[in-house]
C-alpha cells in the first residue's frame, strides 16, 4: 500500500511571510524522507499495540499506514486505516503521534471502542446484500464486500457496495445479519445540496451570473502565446485564458508540436482540464483533450467551450499553488500527482463536484432553469478541491444521509466548513482583480442574497439556514447549514468579532456569549486549521473534537501559553463550543 510522506517545513505565509512558529526545518531528500518514514511507521504501529488501552487496537487488527508527517520540531504522526481479521474496518482510522525519539505521544482515533464484532457469520449472501443496496440507492450494484462497520459504537459485520446510476455513485453499507441499510452516502461531494436547489426552485430564483465582462488581465505577468527556446516537444508554453469569471489570465500550457497546444500544465504535475462532452462519465481518460493552434483558450463567454475550461484550469492551478506555497503540500493528495478537471459534465447539470472515483473535479454547465452558467468560479474550485485534501487526510464523513441525498452530521459539516475556509484562502492567494478575495463563498454565482455562505456571520445565509453557533441540534443539521459553526470559529480566530472592512466587504461578526475576540490574523488561523486537519482529525471528528484538534495544533505551532492558543479557545467558546458542553460520545 502506497504511503504519502510529508516532511513539514517552515510554511510560507499567505502573504509571502513565514508562518510564525517556534521552529523551522530543512526539507529532507525524498530518499531520506522515505527511509525515515519507514522507521516511523514501524515505531507507530508498535506503539499502537503497546498502548492498546488508549489506541483501541486489539488482537486481529492490522494497521495500514496512509500518511506520515514529520514535523521539524520533532513530532511524528502516522495515519492508519485498520483491518480486523482481514476485513476493512469502517470508522477504524486513527493517527498515532510520536515524539522525536519515536516514543508514543498520544492518539487521535475515530472509534472509541475496540473492534470486536458480535458475529463473523453473515446471514445475507453477497448477492442479497447487493440487491438491497441497489434498491436503496436506485442504481446498479457492484460486488458486495464484507467489512466491519465500527462507526456507531459497535463493530457490526456488514457488506459495502458501490451503486452507480447515470454517472453518479453511492456507497451503501448493508448489515450482513439483519439486512438493514446502515448508510447510503454519495461518492461525489456536491457543491450545491439537493435541499438548496429545491429552495431556489420554490423561490423561483434564477442564478445567471455575469460573464465576459472582464477584458483586462486578472493575473500579473500575463503572457501571450509562445514557447521560449523550445528545441523539442512537448515543451512548456505560456498562453492566455479568456475566462468567464476572472478575466484574461496567464496559463501555463503544453506545446505538443510547433503551433499546436494542449491545456495541460507540465509545471504542476501535468494538471489538466478536459471536455466531458456533456456525458456523465467518471473516467478522466474518456474526456476530450482541449487542443488549439493558438495558445489562447476561450473568449470570455459560453459560446466557446474552452472558456469554462480556462476558468477551471486557472482555479485548479491556483488551488495547487496555494497549498504548495503555504503548506508545502505537493498536489491534492500530497503525492506530486496531477490535479484534474472535466468541464461540460453531463447534460443540464447545475452543480460541481469533487469525485474520488475520477479523482478529479467535475463541472456542470447549469441546469438551464435555476443555474444558467457553468459552476467554475474560483472559490467553488478551491472549495471542491479541498474536499479532495480532506479525502486524502481525515476523510470526514456525514453521519447519515436522507433519501434525497442531503447529508447530515457534524463531521460532514466540518468537511464543508474546511472547504469554505480553504476555498476563501485560495481567493486571497490568487489576488485576482476580477474576483477580489473575501470571506464570502459563491459571491460570483449571481444569487439574490449576493453570496451563498459567509464565514463572519453565517446565519445571514437564508437560503441554507446556516447556523452561527453550536447546539445539540447541530448533530441533525444538514452539513452545509451546520458548517457555519466552525467557519464562524475560524473567522473569529483570524479577524476577530465586531465590525471590520476588508477590501470592499463590510463584516460584523457576533459571538454567542457576548465576548470580544481579537483575531490573530488569517495566516496564523489558517496554519492552525490546516495542522489540525492533517494531524488531529479523523473520519468522525465533530465540532468539539475540532476544538481539541485546533488547540493541539496551536500548542504545536505557538505554545500552550501563547496568545494564539488562548484565542483558539476563545473563538470556539464564542460559537458555543466548550469543554464544559461536550456531549457524550456518539461514536
UniProtKB/TrEMBL annotation:
<feature type="active site">
    <location>
        <position position="384"/>
    </location>
</feature>
<feature type="domain" description="PepSY">
    <location>
        <begin position="123"/>
        <end position="182"/>
    </location>
</feature>
<dbReference type="InterPro" id="IPR050728">
    <property type="entry name" value="Zinc_Metalloprotease_M4"/>
</dbReference>
<dbReference type="GO" id="GO:0004222">
    <property type="term" value="F:metalloendopeptidase activity"/>
</dbReference>
<comment type="similarity">
    <text>Belongs to the peptidase M4 family.</text>
</comment>
<keyword id="KW-0645">Protease</keyword>
<keyword id="KW-0865">Zymogen</keyword>
<feature type="active site" description="Proton donor">
    <location>
        <position position="480"/>
    </location>
</feature>
<feature type="signal peptide">
    <location>
        <begin position="1"/>
        <end position="20"/>
    </location>
</feature>
<feature type="region of interest" description="Disordered">
    <location>
        <begin position="207"/>
        <end position="228"/>
    </location>
</feature>
<dbReference type="InterPro" id="IPR013856">
    <property type="entry name" value="Peptidase_M4_domain"/>
</dbReference>
<dbReference type="GO" id="GO:0005576">
    <property type="term" value="C:extracellular region"/>
</dbReference>
<dbReference type="InterPro" id="IPR001570">
    <property type="entry name" value="Peptidase_M4_C_domain"/>
</dbReference>
<dbReference type="InterPro" id="IPR027268">
    <property type="entry name" value="Peptidase_M4/M1_CTD_sf"/>
</dbReference>
<keyword id="KW-0732">Signal</keyword>
<dbReference type="Pfam" id="PF01447">
    <property type="entry name" value="Peptidase_M4"/>
</dbReference>
<comment type="function">
    <text>Extracellular zinc metalloprotease.</text>
</comment>
<dbReference type="GO" id="GO:0006508">
    <property type="term" value="P:proteolysis"/>
</dbReference>
<keyword id="KW-0482">Metalloprotease</keyword>
<feature type="domain" description="Peptidase M4 C-terminal">
    <location>
        <begin position="409"/>
        <end position="577"/>
    </location>
</feature>
<keyword id="KW-0479">Metal-binding</keyword>
<keyword id="KW-0862">Zinc</keyword>
<dbReference type="Pfam" id="PF03413">
    <property type="entry name" value="PepSY"/>
</dbReference>
<dbReference type="GO" id="GO:0046872">
    <property type="term" value="F:metal ion binding"/>
</dbReference>
<feature type="domain" description="FTP">
    <location>
        <begin position="61"/>
        <end position="101"/>
    </location>
</feature>
<keyword id="KW-0964">Secreted</keyword>
<protein>
    <recommendedName>
        <fullName>Neutral metalloproteinase</fullName>
        <ecNumber>3.4.24.-</ecNumber>
    </recommendedName>
</protein>
<feature type="compositionally biased region" description="Gly residues">
    <location>
        <begin position="218"/>
        <end position="227"/>
    </location>
</feature>
<dbReference type="InterPro" id="IPR023612">
    <property type="entry name" value="Peptidase_M4"/>
</dbReference>
<feature type="domain" description="Peptidase M4">
    <location>
        <begin position="239"/>
        <end position="391"/>
    </location>
</feature>
<dbReference type="InterPro" id="IPR025711">
    <property type="entry name" value="PepSY"/>
</dbReference>
<dbReference type="Pfam" id="PF02868">
    <property type="entry name" value="Peptidase_M4_C"/>
</dbReference>
<keyword id="KW-0378">Hydrolase</keyword>
<dbReference type="Pfam" id="PF07504">
    <property type="entry name" value="FTP"/>
</dbReference>
<dbReference type="InterPro" id="IPR011096">
    <property type="entry name" value="FTP_domain"/>
</dbReference>
Amino acid at each position: 500500500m502506497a504511503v504519502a510522506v510529508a516532511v513539514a517545513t517552515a510554511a510560507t505565509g499567505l502573504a509571502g511571510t513565514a508562518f510564525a512558529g517556534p521552529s523551522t526545518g530543512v526539507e529532507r531528500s525524498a530518499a531520506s524522507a522515505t527511509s525515515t518514514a519507514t522507521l516511523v511507521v514501524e515505531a507507530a504501529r508498535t506503539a499502537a499495540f503497546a498502548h492498546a488501552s488508549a489506541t483501541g487496537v486489539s488482537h486481529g487488527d492490522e494497521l495500514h499506514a496512509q500518511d506520515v508527517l514529520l514535523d521539524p520540531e520533532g513530532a511524528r504522526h502516522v495515519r492508519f486505516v485498520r483491518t480486523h481479521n482481514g476485513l476493512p474496518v469502517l470508522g477504524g482510522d486513527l493517527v498515532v503521534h510520536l515524539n522525536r525519539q519515536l516514543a508514543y505521544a498520544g492518539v487521535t482515533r475515530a472509534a472509541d471502542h475496540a473492534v470486536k464484532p458480535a458475529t463473523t457469520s453473515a446471514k445475507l449472501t453477497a448477492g442479497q446484500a447487493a440487491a438491497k443496496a441497489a434498491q436503496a440507492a436506485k442504481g446498479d450494484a457492484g460486488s458486495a464486500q464484507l467489512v466491519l462497520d465500527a462507526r456507531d459504537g459497535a463493530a457490526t459485520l456488514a457488506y459495502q457496495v458501490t451503486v452507480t446510476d447515470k454517472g453518479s455513485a453511492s456507497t451503501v453499507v448493508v448489515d450482513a445479519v439483519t439486512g438493514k441499510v446502515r448508510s447510503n452516502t454519495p461518492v461525489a461531494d456536491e457543491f450545491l445540496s439537493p435541499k438548496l436547489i429545491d429552495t431556489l426552485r420554490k423561490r423561483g430564483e434564477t442564478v445567471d451570473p455575469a460573464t465576459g465582462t472582464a477584458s483586462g488581465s486578472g493575473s500579473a505577468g500575463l503572457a501571450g502565446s509562445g514557447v521560449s527556446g523550445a528545441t523539442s516537444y512537448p515543451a512548456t508554453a505560456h498562453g492566455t485564458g479568456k475566462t468567464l469569471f476572472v478575466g484574461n489570465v496567464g496559463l501555463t500550457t503544453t506545446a505538443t508540436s510547433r503551433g499546436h497546444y494542449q491545456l495541460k500544465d507540465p509545471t504542476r504535475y501535468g494538471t489538466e482540464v478536459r471536455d466531458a462532452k456533456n456525458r456523465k462519465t467518471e473516467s478522466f481518460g474518456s474526456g476530450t483533450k482541449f487542443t488549439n493552434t493558438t495558445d489562447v483558450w476561450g473568449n470570455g463567454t459560453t459560446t466557446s467551450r474552452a472558456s469554462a475550461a480556462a476558468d477551471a484550469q486557472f482555479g485548479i492551478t491556483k488551488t495547487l499553488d496555494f497549498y504548495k506555497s503555504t503548506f508545502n503540500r505537493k498536489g491534492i493528495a500530497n503525492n506530486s500527482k496531477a490535479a484534474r478537471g472535466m468541464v461540460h459534465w453531463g447534460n443540464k447539470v447545475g452543480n460541481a463536484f469533487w469525485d474520488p472515483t475520477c479523482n478529479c473535479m467535475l463541472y456542470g454547465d447549469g441546469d438551464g432553469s435555476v443555474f444558467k452558467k457553468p459552476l467554475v468560479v474560483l472559490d467553488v474550485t478551491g472549495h471542491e478541491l479541498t474536499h479532495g485534501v480532506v479525502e486524502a487526510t481525515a476523510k470526514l464523513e456525514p453521519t447519515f444521509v436522507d433519501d434525497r441525498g442531503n447529508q447530515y452530521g457534524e463531521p460532514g459539516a466540518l468537511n464543508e466548513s474546511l472547504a469554505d475556509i480553504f476555498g476563501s484562502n485560495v481567493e486571497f492567494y490568487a489576488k485576482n482583480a476580477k474576483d477580489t478575495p473575501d470571506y464570502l463563498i459563491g459571491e460570483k454565482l449571481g444569487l439574490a442574497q449576493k453570496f451563498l455562505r459567509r464565514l463572519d456571520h453565517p446565519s445571514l445565509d437564508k437560503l441554507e439556514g446556516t447556523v452561527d453557533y453550536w447546539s445539540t441540534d447541530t448533530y441533525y443539521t444538514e452539513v452545509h447549514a451546520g458548517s457555519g459553526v466552525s467557519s464562524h470559529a475560524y473567522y473569529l480566530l483570524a479577524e476577530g468579532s465586531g465590525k471590520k472592512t476588508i477590501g470592499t466587504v463590510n463584516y460584523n461578526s457576533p459571538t454567542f456569549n457576548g465576548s470580544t475576540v481579537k483575531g490573530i490574523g488569517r495566516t496564523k488561523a489558517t496554519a492552525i486549521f490546516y495542522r489540525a486537519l492533517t494531524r488531529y482529525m479523523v473520519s468522525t471528528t465533530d465540532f468539539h473534537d475540532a476544538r481539541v484538534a485546533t488547540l493541539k495544533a496551536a500548542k504545536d505551532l505557538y505554545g500552550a501559553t501563547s496568545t494564539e492558543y488562548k484565542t483558539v479557545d476563545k473563538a470556539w467558546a464564542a460559537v458555543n463550543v466548550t469543554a464544559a458542553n461536550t456531549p457524550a460520545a456518539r461514536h
